[in-house]
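Pilot study result, target chain (190 residues):
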Amino acid sequence: MMPRSSGRAGVRRNWLNTIFARVKFCVMKKLVFVSLFLTGAVQAAYSQLPPKNIKALAFIAGKWETTTSWGDMEEYWSEPMGDCMMCVYRCVKDGKVVFYEMIVIEQTDSGPVMKLRHFNPGLIAWEDKEKPYEYRLMFLEADKARFERPDKKTYITFHRTSPKTLKVILESQDKEGQWIEDVFDYKLAE
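Predicted structure:
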């Protein structure tokens, strides 16, 4: 047989437990409401930001050169014109071309999108003709832009570190899920 609570002490304990449970429920309900409200407010504010304009990427423009373990590399980026920028790239090692790239950045309703294709010597394309690599602009400052693939396994960052230098960082995930970072320190060609 269970011992009974004696008199007033038992009633008081039950009454306090009931009050405590109700207060706890009200506080939790308010916290959930506030967090949902704040989440919605942040999403609404973010969705109303105007899309970035391609002209803000003009800091990338120029003829850029560097030498890495990949080989001698050149990138020619045009100034923004209309709704696009374009780039041609080549990598040459031991006097022979390793590969080329053709890159465009196009203005869309949601902001700039970079599209990239690779080519072997002889202009033999790597990617399917209907499916270039596509990177959305995710971050933009006065001298820095970060693009991201939809699968979030590759990022490209352009950072104008001085009037004559451009750092390009390629971050990608390998087959085992490990992140690899390649940094290319370009200098503006004279």
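One observation from the pilot: The chain has a mean pLDDT of 84. A full batch analysis is planned for the follow-on phase.
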